Amino acid sequence: MKKQLLFIDDEPRVLHSIGRMLREFKDEWNVQYAVSAQQAYELLAQQIFDLVVIDLHLPDGNGLKLLDSIKTTPRSSDTEVIVFTGAVDRELKSEALNLGAADLLNKPLMKENLLARLNSTLLVKQYQDELKERNRQLNDQLIQAQKMQLIGMLAAGMTHDFKNILAVIQSISEFIAANLNIDREADSNLDKIVRLCHRGEKVVHQMLTFSRPDETEPQRCNLEKLFEDSIQILEYAIPKTIVIDWRCSAADPVTMVNATQLFQLFLNLTVNAVQALDTHGRIEIALEDVTLSEELHNAAATLPPGHYLVLTVSDNGDGIDRKMLQQLFTPFASTRESNGGAGIGLFVAQHIARIHHGLVTAESAADRGTTFRTYLPYQSAEIVQD
Description:
By secondary structure, the chain is α/β, with parallel strands linked by helices. The chain folds into 3 domains: 3-109, Rossmann fold; 138-212; 217-386, Heat Shock Protein 90 (2-Layer Sandwich), CATH 3.30.565.10. Helix content is 48%, strand content 22%. The chain has helices at residues 12-21, 37-46, 63-72, 90-98, 111-179, 184-211, 223-237, 259-277, 322-326, 345-355, and strands at 3-8, 29-34, 51-55, 57-58, 61-62, 80-85, 103-106, 219-222, 242-248, 254-257, 281-292, 296-297, 302-303, 306-315, 359-364, 370-377. Helix 5 packs antiparallel against helix 6 and helix 8 packs antiparallel against helix 10 (345-355). It is elongated. It starts with a strand and ends in a 9-residue tail after the last strand.
């Protein structure tokens, strides 16, 4: 997108000279000119400029007043301003800086000096705009995190109540099955109720675990069971038209990890796969042993040779283009902004993997889906932690 520049000077020959100096930047800058303060006010009311260059001496108005108007008007307050005038106007220049001018230029204007000041001011503005956008995104994330914290508190209380309800249903069902003469079909239905209560209890337990304050110390954890329970939770939330295939070939899936963090990593990767499929498709999830005989290199880190447990999450969605794939694990890099994607889930997943001295890798191709692999160094659960 072209940068929008406005030059204001009452001398047409000066503006004409500036136009000749900037001719080589016609593909990068859209330059407009005003010969009076009144014309400048009209142009500023019509559009937003990235940079305005003002001659402090204008016949129909004070350049300082125009500068102050630009910097104090909300619509144009982010516009950068450079002022230029004769070298002797030191007091005017000092006042201009106090009012928010980004830089100063002396007449007569020299091409090299003018281009250097314009480029440096536009570069600073670009950095400032990027920082403001990041701050806005961070603020939105903070608000969303506070909402989720509140929802988590409410859900934790509701989950306790739900657990009690399930316990009552289970107890009554077991009592009826043990003490009343009922036919085979009714007995089978009661057995289904009891089994569903057990399953619901597992879901409740996992949700309560996730809602509690995080434990920083790694604990002995069976990743096969953790991921199986997580899949049960995921299946409640996704469309029935999305099929999940799960397999575990790891000889020993028990290792030392932070289970809550691994649950979060798993959900981030699988929810990302669900969103890539939209309403239908297939997700393949696997846990296996892998021995790296040489280093595994990635932009995020390098894994040394050794024994790893690898979680693979694959989808058969549209895939991710190469440019996005290179920045996939950076904050706010989202392939689904139009669908509300915040671009933070994969960044968090990579962060959790790095906490465990592991790594998340991504492979994708157009129309062939995406595969994420999380490498977790195997640590014997028999090792006593200090």
